[in-house]
Design a protein that fits this description.
The mean pLDDT is 96. By secondary structure, the protein is an alpha/beta fold. The strands form 3 sheets. The chain has a 7-stranded mixed beta sheet with strand order 9-8-7-10-11-13-12, sandwiched between helices. Strands 1-2-3-4 form a 4-stranded mixed beta sheet. It is globular. The chain has helices at 2-10, 15-23, 44-54, 111-118, 136-144, 157-169, 183-190, 206-216, 238-252, and strands spanning 25-28, 31-35, 60-64, 77-82, 87-92, 95-100, 126-129, 149-154, 176-180, 197-200, 222-231, 257-269, 272-281. The chain folds into 2 domains: 2-85, GMP Synthetase, Chain A, domain 3, CATH 3.30.300; 105-281, Rossmann fold (3-Layer(aba) Sandwich). The protein contains 9 helices and 13 strands. The structure holds S-adenosylmethionine (SAM).
């Protein structure tokens, strides 16, 4: 597909723009989201048509015109071509995710992480997802493990509404529990010491909210999936840098822990990495 797209676009686009486009679009259901450089803006229609030609299922092309920002992790989108809409239903690992890409965070790029975690969840375990969005991690876990419950918290009302729809679409009633609110308040008020595993898929807040993830875990301990964003120069290892930061924090809280696994989930911009650590708390 990428080869076909490259072939179509190489007729019109300068080679440097071509490489950028080709690495920087997402497909969410039947909606494609493209990122454009200043130079490639004038080619937006051509790019959109080429994407729709190559990905026959794509009905809408939107352009991302701002970085992902704010508490809800949203981006500004502009309509480019096709049907003018922002709602899509995305298929992943046998699950369906309905999402309004303008009102809720969604990334198709995290599919491997979602499945990696689902595979670790044990029989009748309880999971707390502190930053659940439209419920993607929670639903993949509910569908691919024998989890008892996934408490799925999000502060964005629109995300919770889509999560409720996704619970219906995937028939995971009673397993994925949508909860509207700030994760730290919800945990303090009603989810202390209930979880075997805690997910923190929000790099911007994970470090600050780490004490609440500890509070959410059962007194016997459990596992925290900690996501962070780290800068690393060529000679530095971003995973080791995050490990050091988390180790200092957990030691200061006198917590007994191990970090059995860590990896770079993706590169977000030059020298910036999204990192996950699996932290075993005793
Ligand atoms: C990066 S998104 C991850 C969403 C989801 N886990 C996914 O992968 O699709 C982070 C989510 O955390 C939510 N959020 C931000 N601050 C929050 C808070 N204090 N408590 C609960 N949710 C929060 C945002 O609304 C957003 O939906």
């Amino acid at each position: 597909m990428k080869r076909r797209l490259r072939k179509i676009l190489s007729v019109t686009l300068p080679p440097e723009e071509l490489t950028y486009i080709y690495h920087s679009y997402d497909i969410v259901g039947d909606v494609a989201i493209i990122r454009l450089t200043d130079a490639s803006k004038k080619y937006s229609q051509i790019i959109a048509e080429a994407i729709m030609k190559v990905h026959k299922n794509v009905k809408t092309v939107l352009a991302q015109t701002s970085p992902i920002c704010g508490d809800f992790r949203l981006r500004k989108l502009e309509f480019v071509a096709g049907e003018n809409k922002t709602v899509a239903v995305h298929k992943e690992s046998g699950c369906l995710f309905s999402v309004d890409v303008e009102k809720c965070y969604f990334s198709p790029r995290l599919f491997y992480e979602r499945m990696r975690i689902a595979k670790q969840v044990g029989n009748r375990e309880v999971v707390t997802n502190m930053f659940a969005g439209v419920g993607c991690f929670s639903i993949v876990i509910a569908k691919h493990s024998n989890v008892k419950k996934v408490h799925s918290i999000d502060v964005n009302r629109a995300a919770i509404q889509y999560m409720q729809e996704n619970v219906r679409l995937n028939r995971v009633y009673g397993k994925v529990i949508p909860i509207l609110g700030d994760a730290k308040e919800v945990i303090e008020k009603r989810l202390c010491h209930v979880a075997d595993r805690v997910l923190m898929p929000l790099p911007e807040k994970a470090f600050k909210y780490l004490p609440y993830a500890l509070l959410a875990l059962k007194k016997a301990g459990g596992r925290i999936y900690y996501y962070d964003s780290e800068h690393a120069k060529k000679n530095e290892n971003p995973v080791e840098k995050v490990k050091l930061k988390v180790t200092e924090k957990l030691e200061s809280l006198s917590v007994a822990f191990r970090i059995p696994f860590g990896r770079v989930v993706r590169t977000t911009s030059p020298n910036w990495y999204q990192v996950v650590l699996d932290i075993a708390i005793k």
